[in-house]
Each structure stands twice: as C-alpha cells, then as structure tokens.
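The instructor's notes for this session suggest beginning with a concrete chain rather than abstract definitions. Hand out the sequence below and ask the class to guess, before any prediction is shown, which regions might be ordered.
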Amino acid sequence: MQEYRAYMIDQDGNIQRRFDLICADEEDAENQAKQLVDGHDVELWRGDKRLAVFTHKPST
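After discussion, reveal the predicted structure:
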C-alpha cells in the first residue's frame, strides 16, 4: 500500500481540501481521485510529485 494525496482546487487555483489516500497502486489512486471531482478540479500527488490532474467539466 502506498500513500497519496488528492487536493480539491477552487476556481482561483487554491487548495480547498486535502484527502489522504492509501492505495494499492497508482491506478487505484487515480480511480479514487476521479471520484472526488464534483464541481472542482482535483490534483493527485505522491510525495512531491504531481501524478495527475482531473478537471471538472461544467455541464452545459
């Protein structure tokens, strides 16, 4: 198991909330982080490395 962090990012680019994730691997961490995208972008990090950004797409 590995430790990851997911950050919910507000419209101004600031961290609004942090989620600590314990996952089997990076794929599992990405799946969990994607579920956090709800009106905000989410960045997934392991240590000091940003692994992915999941962008909120407003409905039209």
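Then share the key points. Helices lie at 26-34. The first helix runs from residue 26 to 34.
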